[in-house]
Amino acid sequence: MTDQQLRDTPTATATPSPSFLTDSPPAAAPAAPSSPAPQAELIPAEDPEDTSDIDRYEIDSALGSDAASFMYPDSVTASILEDFADAYPSAQVIGSDLSPTQPEWVPPNVHFEIADATLTWPWKDNYFDFIHIRYLFGSVQDWPALFQEAYRCCAPGGWVQSCEADIHFYSDDGTTDSEPALQKWADLYERGGAETGRTFFLQQEALQERSITEAGFTDVRIFDYKLPVGGWTNNRKLSELGEYVRLTLENDLEGYTLYLWHNVLNWPREEYPQFLAAMRKVIGNRRVHGYMMVRYVYARKP
């Protein structure tokens, strides 16, 4: 997909953000992703009406229809597990999380367990045929140890899939580079990750693929996607996807940022509401052609 196909407005500078962000010298633009050229441009929306999503397609391609047991540690929505269980009715699907927030009504071949994916996993060796790990950026100190546990619990011939986002705001036309709110967003996660020892930017260090390879997995496959933020693209489906992303960010912005701002970095409390307002303003500006990068890594246990 070309830059022109991704844009529906000319290159432009977005409306300035509140003064508390513009008084400081502008930070450098986010570095371009260090990963190889993407094999696809945009990740499909998780639309409940659309069952042909990227997970389903690539899992089918990798596994066929005979896999027996699947594992989803942490941060996977119940709807994904339900779709997966419906697609593989003879399989047993386990979802794990730190909190008991799972729905009561699920397919009969789905159940949930409370477990911390960063500790020793409570399952025996060679137990799962497929392990899906999703959106743990900012919560893991030892990524090699995580995938060593995945390797131990994965059956020979089984697959692991890791999906993580780089939450920098990128743009192909530079429209995100001069937005102080986005620079503050990046600084929040870079400093917060450094302070906690839990990075939010796995792609910069190739942590997924390196850790998976070091654990002993083979046939490593990497897929990068651009995830649009907002409905600025002139492609109808991608514009709809971008609107879902924008609404999600706007709705959950405080939940994403409050702990790092107040508890980890102890930044000025009086500036926090202004930061939220500035972020919502730039996210909703269709003249800012921002996107995030999402990386899927697949690998097989010999």
Automatic annotation (TrEMBL):
Q: Mind listing the GO molecular function terms for this protein? A: methyltransferase activity
* InterPro entries attached to this UniProt entry: SAM-dependent_MTases_sf
SUPFAM superfamilies from the UniProt entry = S-adenosyl-L-methionine-dependent methyltransferases
Q: Where is the composition biased (Low complexity)?
A: 9-38
Looking up CDD domains in the UniProt record yields: AdoMet_MTases (cd02440)
Region (Disordered) residue spans: 1-52
Q: Which family does it belong to?
A: Belongs to the methyltransferase superfamily. LaeA methyltransferase family.
Protein known as: Methyltransferase
Q: Which superkingdom? A: Eukaryota
